[in-house]
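Can't paste images in this forum, so I'm doing it all in text. The chain is below; anyone willing to post the predicted structure tokens underneath?
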Amino acid sequence: MRNRFSILLGALLLGSSASAESAQLATDAVETKYLLFQVCPAMPGFSPIFPPVPGRMALTKEQLADFARGVTKAIGMTGDARQKLGFTIGPLCFDMPDGEIRQWMRDAFAVARGNDVAVAFHIDDSMFWGQRKDLLSNPDNIETADWKQIPNTGRRLDWGLKPTKAAPQMCFNVPAIVTAVQKRAELIGAEITRELPILKAQGKAHLFAGVIAGWETQIGPDWETGKSLGFRALAHRGFSEKRPPKDLDAERVSVVKEWIELWANLLHAGGTPREKIFCHIAFTSQGLAPEKWATTGAQKARFAPAEVAFSAAYRPGFSTYPEGTTFSQIHDALAVHGGPGWISAEGVNVSPTGMPGEPTMETYLGRIFNHGGVLANVFSWGIGGEAQRTNFFRLATESPECLAAYSKFLRGEKLAESAARRFSASALQEKMHRIQTGIQGYRQEAGLMQKLRMKSLMQKLDSLINGKKWLEADQVADEVWALISEKQMK
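Text version of the structure:
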């Protein structure tokens, strides 16, 4: 029973289910393809590209222009209406006041026009809202881990080897939250409506790359207990402990999809072209082990599995930190849905753990643009300024090999996808598990020289892992497992 939310949702969407305008725009030669670089003007815990100016916004128009010019100078071109260089500004989150977002959007459009680069906007739909005391003060707006409806302790952000704590997971279908989305979507839509005619009059409509409606949208686990959430949303859909849904996972997946559709439909109602609205989910592992509580596919994807990305209200978008089968999983999901145009909403050619991704940046981009991708939003260019020039994310973004790949794309040349062996964090983890399981038996049966050989290899393996030399570690792990397997076969 979904009466309360369905009535409110129907009213907000003005009676439209988006069936009149499909988001599955064909990706042919007419549609511009974008290579964008994310600019984070103000995000807690994220190293800024530029130091904030006292008494001013976290990112000024001049700083944004410096970023655009810096990227253009490094790459050497901005492309044309077929392949275009640009930047994405975000997160546009609930913690930011309306006036600040309005000014950032106007500055971003001005910088795009003035420097012949494209611009997109990345919305944080639910992570950073800790300053919204008007919303946080009401427990009904905060998700829960069971039918007792006790608010969760915080949202877990897996952005590296150690998780980061954010504001509590919000409940997606309560009236106050839906109203807040409506107001924010109207503001963003109004600014786009204001700017698009200016771009079109100047023959520069292709400089608007679109809006990414969400930031790895999900219902994450509780920070302290690790338990899965979503019971507040289930209660607002008419369920209870005595009347639970037949499938808890499927019901929560529906909550997430309806949340993204709410944003997308309201953005469209506010003036954003349907084909320029994208979602952003992260259903692949990205090199990170799933939480112990996650036992089903939906739980491992935090209730945003691949199928959530496909809707008439928006076009599919994914995080693309490559980990072994990341791109093949995305390509498979796209094939099931007819191969629609899609975007890499966030990513770079390395995993958040520091483990390597595809053999080259050209291969990484090829996995996107050679397979129906229309936009790649590359993270980490310039983060931390000069102090973090050797940050592993930046090394995977700003190297000479990367710059050559960017230029090749912008020239419209075919991107080559290397057939070299791809590193897989999950495969290495599985090898290490097999080694730990089998090494005791090996030590009991092996001779002295074999034991010495194994000891040397294990010391080398530990050193390589501690030094984050993943490719070399993977090769040594193969040697170790070959010795164990040979002894087991005898």
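The beta strands are 33-39, 83-92, 118-123, 155-157, 164-166, 208-213, 277-278, 317-319, 342-347, 373-378. The CA atoms of residues 74 and 403 lie 7 Å apart.
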